[in-house]
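user: can you give me the structure for this one chain? tokens are fine.
assistant: on it. calling the predictor now.
[tool input]
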Amino acid sequence: MAGLARGVAAAILLLSMTTLGFAANKVIIILDASGSMWAQIDGKPKLEIARESLRSVLQSVPAEDEIGFMAYGHREKGSCDDIQLIVPPQAGSASAISAAADSLKFLGKTPLTAAVKQAAEALKYTEDKATVVLITDGLETCGGDPCALGKELEASGVDFTADVVGFGLTADEGKQIACLADNTGGKYIQASDEKALQEALVETVAAPAPAPEPAPAPAPAPAPEPAKPEFNLLPTAVLAEGGDPVTDGNAWEIYKAKSDGTRGDNVTTEYGAYKGNLEPGDYIIVARDGEAKTEQKLKIEAGQVYKPVFTLNAGTLIIHPRPSAGADVVDGAAVVIDYPGADAPATYYGTTKIVLPAGDEKVTVTIGQGVAAETIPLAAGKTVEKDIIVGVGHIVANAYYTAGGDKADGSGIGFKVFKAKKKIDGTREEVTYAYGPDSKFDLPPDDYVLIATVELAEVEQPFTVKAGESQDVKVAMNAGVLAITAPGASKIEIFETKKDINGNRKSIGYNYDAKFQTTLPAGDYAIVADTSDNDSKEGTATVKAGERVEVTVK
């Protein structure tokens, strides 16, 4: 979770840094609007943090700068073509971009490579200087190759740059998209301290430029300074005491130390094997890898070289979430890890590899309606790789007008899943629901009842789920389609033909129009068509299963 918070701050910084070049370039900001943006940081969805960050940064951008806004995954689930340039590059677009971000729905996949390609083309990158800023909390899920795209755009563009913010990605994941920035001469930012980066945003974007000062009188030549070592800080991070140095995926955060010993301004954030030169003074150095971190205070004195060792007291946990033993990993499975010292549990998806503080790791995996939880001990310096079996079966539900007949694939199709066993009051517990043909459910082993609805037809069908098994549940609706035309009518209502003891007929459904088409269970029906002058006409219809009946009421 801490990693995600740092990713948000990094997004703010990169946008602020990019705005420095807006006056010279046309820029398109691409925002990841995939479903994983609903994950929360300290109780607040990432998508809300992204919206607020955009709004804050854009308020400080000069009105004449030409900025565009693109999103992907905001209109369709499971589509790799759901990419839209919502606000074309134009001056004074800050309000339009903020409004567009506020209206996004976050539900789709992550076609980030195709989105960057489309943004580059929209900027006419082969003719003009162009910049794209990509903010993503996930990796490519549509088969694109961001590394290859970066090389292609760099080779064919006039002066093309892609800056990338890895929004909550691990360091290993970040490497898979950092190449897009590296190959175009752009920046990749993975994580940073939120407060310090927001202060940098104010300092670099919002603060006015100082007035030029008159040139000072020539100063006397300074005395030559003593030779300095090439590097005066050579820190090392290890997972366990005496372990091998961590040089891949780790981060270093260096802060000035205040007089009370707390963190001051951020000096730099570096990654991997780090060698640096710091001015003499008091510092706080933070070593991070995954969710593990440790810090030391260090006083730098002129002419000295410091080689501090940071022991993270951490191990590596690899989780493979599977619906059943031997089954493939489910990429959409939610993996929640409550690790020692966590402010809040961290959420990952699919196969998860993460460095965690040593101790008991409480892992909860959710696939559909199935949940499995385990506590896994993790020792410092060790790697634990484990399959977590949720134990669910996979169901695909469809409705058919008749057994072996046509499948219902239009609108008005819905499925609700209930526990088969009734409660003491005679009702059943609702488990989940879905809409449309080929509705999919992952369910724990049990007996269930599926209620299928196709417009005005409804059928209940029992089924049983076994762990590791996939099955198609085909519901025969014993229904047909009734198409009614009533010229001049303002309302058409369908009734059962049989009257009750009071002489009333039960209403099945109605429509305020001169035409009404719907799906009904096979049987006989009465039709009443009302006109605007309070006149009414009646007719009858017989619906046959699997057939279409057309009736005109005059």
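assistant: here you go. The first helix runs from residue 2 to 19. The helical segments are 2-19, 46-58, 94-103, 112-122, 146-156, 171-182, 194-206.
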